[in-house]
Amino acid sequence: MTALLTLKDVRAGYGGSVVLDGLSLQINEGEVVCLLGSNGAGKTTTTRVVCGLVQPAAGKVIFDGRDILRVPAHERVNEGICLSPEGRQVFPDMTVRENLVLGSYSKRARADRSKTLEEVFSVFPRLRERESQKAGLMSGGEQQMLAIGRALMGKPRLLMLDEPSLGLAPKLVMDVYEAVAQTARLGISILIVEQNAEVALVASNRGYVLANGQIAASGSAPELRGSKLVQEAFLGTTRAKRNSSRSQDRT
Ligand code: ATP
Fold it and tell me: What is the DSSP letter of 137?
């Protein structure tokens, strides 16, 4: 397996506060990897470090075999590092099409804009139907699709999705994750950042759990799903099973 992204002993935060304290992880070519963590664990900060929006105080950020620690954010987009940010961040007064086109201003993406737009519309037919509608009038699920579509317009080699299921009804979560699966089939490497471990682990080959600024657990999706840490912290199953067997004992 060829490593596409490697973070090694990354230490990063804001002002004097340390959020990531020795974080190491790897994403290989063509893999879907999830980064799980509770509120405030530092998942978004990790995506910012990869994008170049937060500069680490220590550690290494290697992309496609090259140290990109000093490469500015706009050049990283040109390398194929694209983000669908938490909270979608679509431009509400611009149309769906205009929002999508904004994702394709890098040198890497510009020339293929029309072709990529067609590909995005085939992954998200809803966006084609709403092409001329203002983004602010779209539902939460549609805006999430738009945010992912806009990131795809950058022709990513690494697509990072920050909390794609946040605030969506279950049916829309399934729609969004079906699109994630389609994107993965195109061979694009994907990092999914989620609190929703249930859906993220179904969509991923491997995963990491972030706690206290470091990786607390890692493994294949089935290994993580079976781990006590993930069950207790994210799936709630161990406690639920324990409680249900206790109540059965009492009957
Ligand atoms: P969530 O799931 O709630 O988004 P997260 O795992 O993505 O959480 P981060 O957003 O990376 O966590 O935040 C990690 C810590 O850094 C939190 O304590 C947060 O308050 C703090 N933080 C995030 N952004 C900033 C900022 N711009 N300035 C100062 N502190 C910040």
Answer: G
The number of the ligand 1 atom at minimal distance from the alpha carbon of 86 is 4
DSSP-assigned letter for residue 72:
-
Could you tell me the pLDDT band of residue 237, with boundaries at 50, 70 and 90? low
Ligand 1 atom nearest to CA at 42: 11
Q: What is the C-alpha to C-alpha distance for residues 134 and 116, in angstroms, rounded to an integer?
A: 21
Over residues 35-87, the pLDDT tens digits come to: 999 888 999 999 999 999 999 999 999 999 999 999 999 999 999 999 998 88
Query: Which amino acid is residue 125, in one-letter code?
Result: P
The residues near 44 (Cβ < 8 Å, ≥ 6 apart) are: 86, 162, 193
Cβ–ligand 1 distance for 170 under 6 Å, the answer no
Distance of CA 81 to the CA centre of its chain: 11
Work out the number of other CB atoms within 10 angstroms of the CB of residue 130: 20
